[in-house]
Amino acid sequence: MNIAVTGGAGFIGSNFVYYELKNHPEDRIICFDALTYAGNLETLNSAMENPSFKFIRGDITNRKQVETFFENEKPDILVNFAAESHVDRSIENPQLFLETNVLGTSVLLDACRKYSVDRYHQVSTDEVYGDLPLDRPDMMFTEESNLHTSSPYSASKASADLLVQAYERTYKVPATISRCSNNYGPFHFPEKLIPLMIINALNNRKLPVYGDGLNVRDWLYVEDHCKAIDLIIREGHVGEVYNIGGHNEHSNMDVVKMILHELNKPESLIEHVADRKGHDRRYAIDPTKIQTELGWQPETKFEDGIKKTIKWYLDNRSWWEHIMNGEYQHYYERMYGSRKKYVYSSL
Ligand code: NAD
Ligand code: DAU
């Protein structure tokens, strides 16, 4: 089978490329990625040595490039990871998120329709459901929860999901959607909470926690996400949405303290800074459907996964140092340089 992986030079897409090469050596994996600031060819260095893997630079919003890709590579399945993925950047520049996440998805769907693929899989997010209150631990997102978005990022992802469902119903494009909770693990771009905190702690820099730091995220080790997508594309049912999550809810403060503890760094490095606009309070996924229908189970507990992840950042300094030394410095200065600092005396 030919499996096209759009956005395969990013965090989850690259982990998926490695998962497929390891677990399905009989398949050909073709990565199609525009190499934006978040895409990194170094991440795919080992894959490049595998004859079953091919990389093609291209933009999912460019219809001509996408059609040429389909004509040359003839994918049987397309898994779409390509997106603008960072909430803070979406608050700075919503337009780009609409172009990539909504228009890009529509271009891919048109191509899947024109070239009759066997499956289009949309990698979506739990953020399309909005957030949950902290004082109702019994509440979780199911596939039936309403779409109720908070940020331009989540609104663009929800729009893309609606388009996928419309193409499935109207044009019979054989599509599935997965909505996963927060991922962490190797190759996670340094702008996101966990890698940012690991790297700042290693450099004895302040750890900028937004607001009171009590916001809760439901963390899943990236390989468990890849395993779930692999199951969905091979055994999942067309037209279905599958939630993915492993019941690993932690507040941001807890995560940051765990990282400091693991690296033997003082909690005085924590600095409360101005909150994210529209900041979602809590996410929690109910994964019952994928567990009962497809037999998926997560393997990595958060306590083990965070240790593995910290070790990966210690062992792969050159990967993140190359990023830190480039354009990313300007982003960091823009996002954190003049951000207000707060003292939360009750914490
Ligand atoms: P990422 O930002 O690390 O990677 C995105 C990749 O897409 C990059 O390689 C980038 O170059 C590529 N890309 C961006 N615009 C493109 C375009 N126009 N054409 C082709 N390629 C383009 O993102 P990620 O964290 O790996 O997330 C991947 C997908 O999973 C996204 O769709 C995201 O919404 C979803 N998701 C992420 C998480 C998470 O915790 N990171 C959780 C659930 C769902
Ligand atoms: O839930 C899935 C989503 O998880 C994905 O769809 C997104 O692509 C992915 O980026 C992630 O979104 P979050 O906004 O939850 O992740 P982020 O790492 O940006 O932030 C996690 C939490 O940490 C959030 O409550 C904001 C907070 N935070 C983040 C940063 C970068 C801080 O307190 N300080 C920071 O510097």
Structure description:
By secondary structure, the protein is an alpha/beta fold. Helix content is 43%, strand content 16%. The chain has 13 helices and 14 strands. The chain has helices spanning 11-23, 45-48, 63-73, 87-92, 94-114, 152-171, 193-202, 222-235, 252-262, 288-294, 302-315, 317-324, 328-337, and strands at residues 2-6, 28-33, 53-57, 77-80, 119-125, 175-180, 183-184, 207-210, 216-218, 220-221, 241-244, 249-251, 270-273, 341-342. It has a 7-stranded parallel beta sheet, with helices on both faces. The chain has a 3-stranded mixed beta sheet with strand order 8-13-14. Strands 7-10 form a two-stranded parallel sheet. The N and C termini lie far apart (54 Å). It binds nicotinamide-adenine-dinucleotide and 2'deoxy-thymidine-5'-diphospho-alpha-D-glucose.
Nearest-angstrom radius of gyration?
19 Å
Oligomer: single chain
The set of bound ligands, ions and cofactors reads: nicotinamide-adenine-dinucleotide, 2'deoxy-thymidine-5'-diphospho-alpha-D-glucose
Give start-end ranges of low-pLDDT stretches: none
Helix and strand sequence: EHEHEHEHHEHEEHEEEHEEHEHHHHE
What is the helical fraction, as a range of percent? 40-55%
Categorize the overall geometry.
globular
Mean pLDDT across all amino acids: 97
Number of E-state strands: 14
End-to-end separation in angstroms reads 54 Å
How are the strands of the largest sheet arranged? 3-2-1-4-5-6-11
Largest sheet: 7 strands, parallel
Strand content: 15-25%
Number of helices: 13
Set out the fold topology:
Layout: E1 2-6, H1 11-23, E2 28-33, H2 45-48, E3 53-57, H3 63-73, E4 77-80, H4 87-92, H5 94-114, E5 119-125, H6 152-171, E6 175-180, E7 183-184, H7 193-202, E8 207-210, E9 216-218, E10 220-221, H8 222-235, E11 241-244, E12 249-251, H9 252-262, E13 270-273, H10 288-294, H11 302-315, H12 317-324, H13 328-337, E14 341-342
Parallel strand pairs: 1-2, 1-4, 2-3, 4-5, 5-6, 6-11, 7-10, 8-13
Antiparallel strand pairs: 9-12, 13-14
Helix pairs in contact: 1-8, 3-5, 5-6, 7-9
The structure holds nicotinamide-adenine-dinucleotide and 2'deoxy-thymidine-5'-diphospho-alpha-D-glucose.
